[in-house]
TrEMBL record:
Matches recorded under Pfam families: CsbD (PF05532)
Record-annotated membrane-spanning stretches: 73-91
Classification lineage: Bacteria, Pseudomonadati, Pseudomonadota, Alphaproteobacteria, Acetobacterales
Protein name: General stress protein
Domain spans labelled CsbD-like: 8-56
Keywords, comma-separated and alphabetical: Membrane, Transmembrane, Transmembrane helix
Family as reported in the entry's similarity comment: Belongs to the UPF0337 (CsbD) family.
Length: 95
C-alpha cells in the first residue's frame, strides 16, 4: 500500500523547489536552471496526480471487496452472467 500523504508532500516540495529554480533561472538568465525548474514542477504535479488516482482506485477496490463480502451469492451471480455473455460472444455458432 502506498502512503499517499507522503507522496503528496514530496510532490508539493518538488513543485515548490521547481518554482524557485524557475524564478531564479528567469532572473539570472540561466535557461538550463529555468528548464530544470519547469521539469521539477511537472514532476511534483505528476506525484500529486498519482496520489489522487491511487486514492480513488483504492476506495473503489475497497467498495467492491465489501460488496463481495456482504453479498457473495449476488456477486457470484453477476460473475456467472458476465461469463455466460462473454462465452456466447466468443463461441457463438457461425453460420
Amino acid at each position: 500500500m502506498v502512503d499517499t500523504t507522503s507522496v503528496k508532500a514530496e510532490g508539493f516540495v518538488q513543485e515548490a523547489k521547481g518554482r524557485v529554480k524557475d524564478a531564479v533561472g528567469a532572473i539570472s538568465g540561466d535557461a538550463a536552471m529555468q528548464a530544470g525548474g519547469k521539469i521539477d514542477q511537472l514532476g511534483g504535479r505528476a506525484k500529486h496526480e498519482f496520489a489522487d488516482l491511487y486514492d480513488a482506485n483504492e476506495s473503489r477496490l475497497e467498495a467492491v471487496t465489501a460488496f463481495i463480502q456482504e453479498r457473495p451469492f449476488v456477486a457470484l451471480g453477476i460473475v456467472s452472467l458476465v461469463g455466460l455473455v462473454i462465452g456466447r460472444l466468443i463461441f457463438r455458432k457461425r453460420g
